[in-house]
């Protein structure tokens, strides 16, 4: 965000400006290590990015049927943006015992 205001916007003005802007979208990292999503459950908001970081030597997926299917190659990361509020259970297609959960608020 760029604020051009001729240098006359004081700290109080800046606070007022920030308070009326919507919260900025966040990126939430979930690590995959030894076939486990960590943390297994995360809280997010609509518009946030969920980024999975795969530390394993094998590929994994983050798959929520009908919602997303993200393949994360070994030692790489991949992400998706959550667009709807609600709870999302996801798993890895290659290792169905791997399970995670997103709690997405408006
Ligand atoms: Cu897997």
Task: Describe what this molecule looks like in 3D.
With 106 residues, this protein is mainly β. It has one domain (24-105): Cupredoxins -  blue copper proteins (Immunoglobulin-like), CATH 2.60.40.420. It contains 1 helix and 9 strands. It has one helix at 11-20, and strands at residues 27-33, 36-38, 41-45, 49-54, 60-64, 68-72, 77-81, 86-91, 99-105. The strands form 3 sheets. It has a 4-stranded mixed beta sheet with strand order 2-1-4-7, with no helix packed on it. Strand 1 (27-33) and strand 2 (36-38) form a beta hairpin. The protein starts with 10 loop residues before the first helix and ends with a strand. The mean pLDDT is 88. Bound molecules: copper (II) ion. Copper (II) ion (CU) binds next to loops. Copper (II) ion (CU) binds at residues 35, 60, 92, 94-95, 98.
Largest sheet: 4 strands, mixed
Please state the structural category.
Answer: mainly beta
Assigned CATH superfamily: Cupredoxins -  blue copper proteins
Q: What is the end-to-end distance? A: 22 Å
Could you tell me the number of beta strands? 9
Nearest-integer average pLDDT:
88
Q: And the CATH topology?
A: Immunoglobulin-like
The gross shape turns out to be globular
What are the secondary-structure elements, in order, as H or E? HEEEEEEEEE
Task: Write down the Rg.
Answer: 18 Å
Instruction: Give the strand content.
Output: over 45%
Flag low-confidence runs: none
CATH classification class: Mainly Beta
């Amino acid at each position: 965000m760029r604020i051009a205001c001729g240098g006359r916007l004081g700290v109080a003005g800046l606070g007022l400006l920030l308070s009326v802007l919507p919260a900025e979208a966040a990126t939430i990292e979930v690590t995959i290590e030894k076939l486990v999503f960590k943390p297994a459950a995360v809280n997010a908001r609509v518009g946030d990015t969920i980024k999975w970081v795969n530390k394993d030597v094998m590929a994994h997926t983050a798959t929520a049927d009908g919602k997303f299917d993200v393949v994360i190659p070994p030692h790489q990361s991949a992400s998706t943006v959550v667009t709807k509020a609600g709870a999302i259970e996801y798993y890895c297609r290659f290792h169905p015992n791997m399970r995670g959960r997103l709690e997405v608020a408006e």
